[in-house]
Write a structure and sequence with these properties.
alpha+beta, 2 helices
């Protein structure tokens, strides 16, 4: 199993060049925040990620892919909202 520091590094660097912050709560769950590159506005927050379930590269890749999908979906919703204003 990877250390929390290694998991954080893998997750944070996977979103470059966007700023990504991965923190660990008291219960050892992870929270990931992804920020917009230009405005530094919080684009995505995922909480309650169980670090002990991230035991393989596939599990980590699936987590990151899911977050990227959520981020893309959120971006599309934001664009539609802006177009409606």
């Amino acid at each position: 199993m990877l250390s929390t520091l290694e998991l954080r590094n893998i997750i944070e660097t996977s979103f470059l060049p966007q700023r990504c912050q991965c923190t660990q709560a008291q219960d050892r769950s992870l929270t990931v925040r992804v920020f917009d590159r230009t405005s530094q506005h919080l684009d995505l927050i995922v909480t309650g990620i169980r670090a002990e379930q991230l035991t393989s590269s596939r599990a980590i890749s699936n987590l990151i892919a899911g977050m990227r999908t959520d981020l893309k979906r959120q971006s599309q919703l934001d664009k539609v909202s802006a177009d409606c204003l």
